[in-house]
């Protein structure tokens, strides 16, 4: 077809002095040819929901706290996929669960979530290519009205020492409530999820800090963790510590307050900096045998510095 257009082009060009209309026809032909070629590069990327066993790919009714697995495949023939955005819409508004830059022609992504406290959840997965063409897929989950909130474990007072405290351990197992010193943790590293330290060596210093074995600063204060088996247990803390009041924390008797404040769209950090009395910190365990469990920490007091300790209460899903 290209040869045909080129032949006509040169034919018209050589004879265009014989008819003024030939120039107009030639220009129209060139524009048509250019647009027909350009159209192929403007096709949006393709996104599909994974429909294999174990995946959710259609709207459904689910129980509170039920694990849901959603996967997408993305493909682009021409312009690479450069962005993936995941949003959660509920009756309370919209949260962005992920906004990630990419550069690939093929994408495979899986998100594990658990249904929260909302009446409904609409999850939208959107990919965009280099030409800023977008494609989306959406799944809506609706709460099973017969489902109930889950039970919680409550630890009313936990004291964890900072890195130079010789009388109070710094390592915590939220399943049993046990506290351990650094020199006894190598054998039980799979049970440790929370580690505290006074972050005087950070730039800038962040004072009383809740970390976890996967925290990127943790080996600055406990270097032996470099030798722990990978992947290390991981805790994610929500940055916003003022959404839940201490009074609301005290009154919580099931996990409704927990799952409504750490949703599947929450982007948590592997450490919580500059803890202060009165803060209530939502968290989720994201790596280890307890992965998926969510909870709340209420800071009661902070004492001393490198040799001091943090006192807090915890409520965590059973």
Topology of this structure?
Blueprint: H1 2-15, H2 21-40, E1 46-49, E2 60-62, E3 67-75, E4 81-90, E5 93-104, E6 106-114, E7 120-129, E8 134-143, E9 152-161, E10 171-173, E11 178-180, E12 194-199, E13 207-211, H3 218-221, E14 234-237, H4 246-251, H5 256-261, E15 280-287, E16 294-303, E17 309-317
Parallel strand pairs: 2-8
Antiparallel strand pairs: 1-3, 3-6, 4-5, 4-7, 7-8, 9-17, 10-11, 10-12, 12-13, 14-15, 15-16, 16-17
Question: Uncertain runs with pLDDT below 50, 5 residues or more?
Answer: none
Q: What is the H-and-E element order?
A: HHEEEEEEEEEEEEEHEHHEEE
State the shape. globular
The count of helical stretches stands at 5
Structure description:
With 318 residues, the chain is of the alpha+beta class. The N and C termini lie far apart (68 Å). Strand 4 and strand 5 form a beta hairpin. Helices cover 16% and strands 39% of the residues. Helix 1 packs antiparallel against helix 2. The longest helix has 20 residues. The protein folds into 3 domains: 39 residues; 98 residues, Immunoglobulins (Immunoglobulin-like, Sandwich), CATH 2.60.40; 166 residues, no CATH class. The protein has 5 helices and 17 strands. The strands form 4 sheets. The protein has a 5-stranded mixed sheet, with no helix packed on it.
Task: Provide key terms for this protein.
318 residues; alpha+beta; Immunoglobulin-like; 3 domains; five-stranded antiparallel sheet; 17 strands; 39% strand; globular
């Amino acid at each position: 077809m290209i040869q045909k257009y080129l032949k006509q082009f040169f034919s018209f060009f050589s004879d265009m002095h014989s008819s003024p209309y030939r120039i107009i026809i030639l220009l129209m032909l060139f524009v048509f040819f250019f647009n027909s070629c350009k159209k192929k590069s403007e096709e949006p990327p393709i996104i599909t929901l994974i429909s294999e066993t174990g995946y959710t790919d259609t709207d459904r009714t689910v129980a509170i706290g039920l694990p849901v697995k959603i996967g997408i495949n993305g493909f682009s023939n021409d312009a690479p996929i450069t962005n993936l955005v995941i949003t959660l819409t509920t009756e309370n508004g919209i949260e962005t669960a992920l906004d990630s830059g990419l550069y690939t022609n093929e994408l495979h992504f899986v998100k594990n979530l658990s249904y929260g406290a909302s009446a409904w959840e609409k999850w939208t997965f959107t990919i965009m290519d280099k030409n800023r063409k977008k494609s989306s897929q959406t799944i809506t989950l609706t709460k099973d009205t017969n489902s109930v909130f889950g039970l919680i474990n409550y630890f009313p007072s936990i004291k964890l020492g900072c890195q130079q405290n010789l009388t109070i351990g710094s390592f915590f197992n939220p399943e049993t409530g046990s506290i351990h010193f650094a020199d006894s943790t190598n054998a039980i590293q799979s049970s440790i999820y929370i580690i505290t330290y006074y972050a005087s060596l950070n730039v800038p210093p962040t004072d009383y800090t809740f970390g976890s074995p996967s925290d990127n600063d943790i080996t600055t204060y406990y270097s032996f963790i470099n030798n722990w088996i990978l992947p290390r247990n991981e805790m994610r803390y929500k940055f916003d510590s003022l959404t839940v009041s201490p009074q609301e924390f005290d009154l919580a008797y099931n996990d409704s307050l927990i799952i409504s404040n750490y949703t599947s769209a929450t982007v948590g950090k592997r450490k919580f900096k500059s803890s202060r009395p009165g803060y209530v910190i939502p968290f989720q365990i994201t790596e280890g045998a307890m992965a998926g469990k969510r909870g709340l920490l209420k800071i009661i007091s902070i004492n001393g510095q490198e040799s001091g300790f943090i006192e807090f209460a915890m409520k965590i899903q059973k």
